[in-house]
Amino acid sequence: MNFNENELFGAALIGFDMIDGPFLKWKKEMDNAKNIVNLNDFAINFYLAFRGGNEGKKPRAILYDTFYIVAFPKDLELCCLFMKPQGVEQNLKQLNKIANRYIKEMEKDEELEEPETESEIQNDKYTIKEIKRLIINLLNEKEMSTPELRRYFKLNNSQIWKVMSILESTQKVRRTDKKGRSVNWTAI
Known about the structure:
Blueprint: E1 8-17, E2 21-29, H1 39-51, E3 61-63, E4 68-74, E5 77-83, H2 88-112, H3 118-138, E6 144-145, H4 146-153, H5 157-169, E7 173-179, E8 182-187
Antiparallel strand pairs: 1-2, 1-5, 3-4, 4-5, 6-8, 7-8
Helix pairs in contact: 4-5
């Protein structure tokens, strides 16, 4: 990124109050600022964009259509420099061409992938139907937790919950107890 000080059209210091959250603490707009962005309205958005997320995975700069922001954190405050990019349109056009090329490549790859055959879909439905039948028999006069059922049928978490919610909505099983995040089930 080539930096030219003429691109700078504003600076702001966004503070953070433990009760009210982010607020505009200080701002300075240069003479070449032509109402590109209203700093008062966007203080919270900018703060969250730069300070939100996981540690180490925070942006240093964000490019918008008409301006970009470079941010420098200091404790809970954030110093933002607002800049008008010069000559970035050509780079964006080139990047758009590259992105379109990748999109076309991905679409071709999706077309080449074999769709599930009718027999595979029938086998999958048969397997789910069989698992439901076995769970009802297994839980007859017995109680088991969701993790136990998941391991028993070698299903992932979302698969077992899908099956159990179907069985619960059709009133084949009911919840008996909850320990932490684990739910116990029994047949009705």
